[in-house]
Amino acid sequence: MEKKSAANVVDIRNAPQRPLEVELEQFREHFTKLKAEIQKAIVGYDQLLTDTLVAIFSGGHVLFEGVPGLGKTYLVRVLSQVVGLEPGRVQCTPDLMPADILGTHIVNEDSNGRRVLHFEKGPVFKNLLLVDEINRATPKTQAALLEVMQERAVTAGGERHILPEPFFVLATQNPMEMEGTYPLPEAQLDRFMFKIKVPFPTLESLVEISRRTTGFDEPKLESVLSGAELMRLQHVIAQIPVADPVAHYASKLVLASHPDQLGVLPSVSRYVSYGASPRGLQALIRGARVWCALRGGTAVSIQDVQGVALVALRHRMILNFEGEAQQIKVDALIEEILKQVATPAMEAA
After folding, report:
1. Would you say the C-alpha torsion 249, 255, 259, 264 has a positive or negative sign?
2. Cα–Cα distance measured from residue 104 to residue 119, given in angstroms and rounded to the nearest whole number
3. Torsion from C-alpha of 114, 117, 119, 120, nearest 10 degrees
C-alpha cells in the first residue's frame, strides 16, 4: 500500500512554457543569487559551493568529506534557509537505529477508543535531510537510507510512504582513518551523485572566519528560491540537449575506470578493483547539463562533462588492496583518465 499526501508532490506540468533560453537565463540569475546569499555566511569554498548547487539543481544527493570543524554541517543549514526547503537532521552515532531515521509504528486510540497502529514519521520526511557523520553509524543504520535515497520512499509495516518533493540527502563523513568510523558500502556510495572534499581554509579565509564568527550577530539570510521553483528549473535544465559524441565520450570515461576493459591505463588495471557504475554516467550527464546552463551554452560540451568528472567519479572507483596499501589517490587516476580518453575532436583529427 502506497500512501502519498497531495502536499508532498509539486505539480509543474501545468506551468506556462517559455523559450529555453529565457528559462536558462532565469536559472543563472537564481544560481548567482543563491551563491551570493550562501557566501554571506560561508567564508571561501567557492568551488565547493558551486559543486553543491550543481548537484542540487541536478536533483542529486551529496556526500561531503572532511575533518571535523570545517563547517560542513553549517553549510547544509545555510543551504536549507536560502533554498527555502524544510530541513531534517540526523546525528549519526553507533547506537543510532533505523527507526530513529525512518520512523516507527506506535499504538494510538481512535475516536471509538480502539487501539490502532499509527506510523510516526522520522526526520527523513523533510525536503533536505542532513545526515551528519554518516560513517559513524553502523552498517544496519546506513542501509536504512538505501531505499530513501534511490526511491525517495520509506516502506514500513507493509505500507510505502512517499517522501516530500523535492528531496535531498546531504551527508557528511570523516576521513576513514579517524577512529570510530564504519566505511560506507559501495551500493550506498553509488547513490550519492557527488562526493565533495572539504579542504582546510586558507590563511585569508581563517582571518575572515575569525572576524565573522566571534561576535554575537549572525548573518541574516533570505530565501531566494522555493521548492516548487527549484523543481521547475530542474525540469528546464533536463531539456538541454546532449549530442551523441558527448554521450559517447562520457560513456568512455566510465568504461576507462574499469580495470577489466581493454586499453585501460596500467595504473587503473593495477590499483582499481571496481569502476564507476551507470549511475556515474547519469551523474556526469546531469551535472554537465547544469554546467552548460551556467556558461550560457545551448548544448552540453565535452568541457561540461570534464567539469564534473572528479566529483561524480571519485567515490565510484574502488581501490584494491594494493591501491589502498600504496595510498593511491583516486583523483589522480581520474585526471589520468581525462588525459587518456580521446575527445571527439581528437578522434576526428
Report:
1. negative
2. 6
3. 60
Phi, psi of 125 (to 5 degrees): -85, 55
| First-to-final CA distance of the chain | 57
334 Cβ contact list (under 8 Å, min separation 6): 257, 309, 310, 313, 314, 317
Burial of residue 18, with CB atoms counted within 10 A of its CB: 0-12 exposed, 13-18 middle, 19 or more buried: exposed
The DSSP 8-state label assigned to residue 89 in this structure reads E
The string of pLDDT tens digits covering residues 227-248 is 888 899 999 999 999 999 999 9
Are 129 and 88 spatial neighbours (Cβ–Cβ below 8 Å)?
A: yes
Give the residue carrying C-alpha cell 509539486. Answer: 10
CB atoms within 10 A of CB 180: 10
152-188 pLDDT, tens digit per residue, is 888 877 788 888 888 899 998 877 655 567 788 888 8
Report which residue type is found at 75.
L
Separation CA 259–CA 84 (nearest Å): 43
Instruction: List, in order of start, the domains of the chain with CATH numbers.
Output: 1-239 (3.40.50.300), 240-344 (1.10.8.80)
